[in-house]
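Sharing a chain and its predicted structure for anyone who wants a worked example. Both blocks are below, sequence first, tokens second.
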Amino acid sequence: MKKFTGVALLLIIALQSFGQTAPKPYGKLPTKGQLNWQEMGMYCIIHYGVDVYTNKEWGYGDEDPKLINPSHFSAMQIVAAAKAGGFKGVVVVAKHHDGFCIWPTKTTEHNISKSPYKNGKGDMMKEYREACDKLGMQLGVYCSPWDRNNPNYGTADYVKIYREQLKELYTNYGPLFISWHDGANGGDGYYGGKREVRKIDRSTYYGWDTTWAITRKLQPNAVIFGDVGPDVRWVGNEEGHAGETCWATYTPHAPDEGKKPGNGYVKDYEGTEGTRNGDYWMPAECDVSLRPGWFYHKTQDDGVKSPYTLLDLYYKSVGRGAALDLGLSPDPKGIVNEIDVKSLTEFGNLLKQTFALNLAKGATLTASNVRGGNKAQFGPQMLLDNDRYSYWATDDKVTTPEVTIDLHTPKTFNVIRLRENIKLGQRIEAVELDAWMNGKWQQIGAATSIGGNRLIRLTQNITASKLRLRVTKSPVCIALSDFGLFKEPVHLTAPKIIRNKKGEVNITTEAPVSSIHYTMNGQEPTLNSPVYKEAFTLADGGIVKARSFEGKTQMSDVSFASLGYAKADWKVIDASPANDGGNRAENAIDERAGTLYSTLTKESATYPQQITIDLGKELPIRAFGYLPRQDKQAEGIVDQYVFYTSIDGKEWTKVAAGEFSNIKSNPIEQPVVLGKPVNARYFKFESAHVIAGNGITVAELSVY
């Protein structure tokens, strides 16, 4: 009996050793669809429709379907361009705010069957589905809740139509990895010829709970994206980056106390960091376009983001536990422009080069604590396998452990990757990393909010043979699943191009380089291009491109600046009164994006408000530019404008009027290209409406 008891005791001890209980989950947890979304990391959103042909960002809803007749539309080429960049899927804009549907829907006549494309037999959604299947890419859909074409918008009947559109998309084009819902809702539009403003209660109008139930039923593995999720939240900006601290959990709040938050009705700035211990597992998506705008505009061909700019965005989105959603803009032919394809392909190659080899492979890891002493199940070696969900865990009471990584030989790196097993929640709140250098430990990096993926990009290369990771803050025991070391290919920083009010162009770099070469003819700079030596004057504007070189083999990305007329002789001759904060009208023409002309007041404001400029002499004018405030505030940003010109400052001609669509989320310079060039000495910028606040704000006005 004693012998049997002893054997049983040994057996129990052995079972406890090899079957140590896993840590209890902490907080909210991801679903199957959310895990798939996290593992994707990057996908593209594709904007193609009537706006490509009207040169707008938001169509009004009265566009003729006959506009859609691309000569070379190729879903295969578009999806292949995304895949070349390392993206894992695409979200297709099946319907934007203009209401035009790129599939033959039964819900509205405003669809592709009424276009000349394939003689009215086309179905672009079907072509995207087939392309994704052939290329091994995942597919998602965007169907705008706001519809500026539909005469029923604003009534309960439209919500039924919208839900039927979702049902068609879910039923005919699945499987889908995401259903994407925009926050832009309500406003002016065509609305079947009514041409009026329609307001909705964004908190209740769409009945989101009922709408989301359709997704759950027809596409159960698809995540739902929106300002309020419920699965993936908007990060709160269209700049492509999450907060340095970015929690996967989130509690959305309405702007008004006591109201229920909804898409387009939320404190969106809270989405940048999320909510520690929030009510929902709702990680952030960082959306940003490859070009300045979401739809293709010929004038933005020089504004395509460079491969290293995309890499920087990757670190600030995917590297902070969020996802990168990059906008692609097929051109009027129906394909992604070769400039865009080149940047995507080079970015994809850059990612492959950077993350091809984990320099920590083969290292010996020693942890200060292992859960239950069970190294086979919870030991630190789990950090170096290829399983995203195997993990190093500690005993329940050990929340600030450390692990030493012996690389055996010196390795040079500048990127550190950490991941948690998020099936057990987001647990760790802070870590620090040290390298053994010059006979002592020296801190080289730190991070908060690890979650599904954390990339720490060091400011300089580090060479060391031994590292130490210290968890400095965690409410519970850890479940860390990955440790990686990587090194980016050597590259130079692109130069910065700045022009002052006198028209003097300066080109600078962050660090010394062998030479800077530039062009003013639209060509990419090479070693044969002019060498930048000192500031030069460019009074009549143009496009300047510049590139840094180190010897004959290393070169940076190309930087560019599209410059209008120099403003040395410009004068403000009339303007709505500036407020008393020193934000005078002259700030609108000082070539400094950080200064502001503002008429904002605490009192109610009347519109229109305007500013009138004397150019100093008569000039040919092809376009104007309005740069909104750059401080991430919305007050005073103009979204409805009129431009006038005059030869003598007395007789005025209206030359352009319209809206700056999406300017709040994407506050870049807004180009206003004239239907035909005009000659004028004076111009007047008039605001008919602003996004918020009482009064207008202008960072800069330009003339091209």
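Comments welcome. The CA atoms of residues 247 and 499 lie 40 Å apart.
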